[in-house]
């Protein structure tokens, strides 16, 4: 099967992968399509009357995952690369505006799919999970904070690792020791990490697994073992 990438070292993102992406893309597409057919309620709504999308949801998810794996942060640059190197895998590739709109509509679907794919790995049953948070600074001046559209959601908080106050949000991540994400939350800067942890554990899609991991001291253990 064809290989994408080059063997000579270079700093361009396109050349960081020298592997068979055909197999990865095909397996991801088949798995995603099967999951969406088994749980259609997690797919975004499409009108019954009108033009049918030229690229299905499973193909869009596959494109988005491959963009992340190849390290493309620019959607326009990624679509140009995909048009040149991956056109044989997709019968249609959208323009940047359509690509961005479809991805925004698929945000909840992708989040659900990430969880379902993670549960198929052995790392999901690791004995120890760890949680940590990092500040997401949104503004520095008082005027910017007052005029920001995040006003009322973002707030002032203290970052112990940087020994300073900031205005913004806080990103919480729950993961296994091997780095597999289990859950995340974006909260105000003053949110209590223990409360956020319990909320993340409460949203675990596997009730039996959640019950076995959320005993009376489970939250405290995870907070003590923060990375």
Summary tags:
227 residues; alpha+beta; 2 domains; 9 helices; 4 strands; 42% helix; globular; disordered N terminus
Instruction: Give helix % range.
Output: 40-55%
Report the structural category.
Answer: alpha+beta
Question: Biggest sheet: strands, sense, closure?
Answer: 4 strands, antiparallel
The rounded Rg comes to 21 Å
Description:
The two termini are 41 Å apart. The chain contains nine helices and four strands. Helix 1 crosses helix 2. The relative contact order is 0.09. The chain is α+β, with helices and mostly antiparallel strands. Strands 1, 2, 3 and 4 form a four-stranded antiparallel beta sheet that branches. It has two domains: 13-119, no CATH class; 122-224, no CATH class. It has helices at 21-38, 57-69, 75-85, 96-105, 107-119, 142-147, 193-202, 207-213, 218-224; strands at residues 129-139, 155-159, 164-176, 181-188.
Outline the secondary-structure elements.
Layout: H1 21-38, H2 57-69, H3 75-85, H4 96-105, H5 107-119, E1 129-139, H6 142-147, E2 155-159, E3 164-176, E4 181-188, H7 193-202, H8 207-213, H9 218-224
Antiparallel strand pairs: 1-3, 2-3, 3-4
In summary, what is this structure?
The chain has 227 residues and is an alpha+beta fold. It has nine helices and four strands, in the order H-H-H-H-H-E-H-E-E-E-H-H-H.
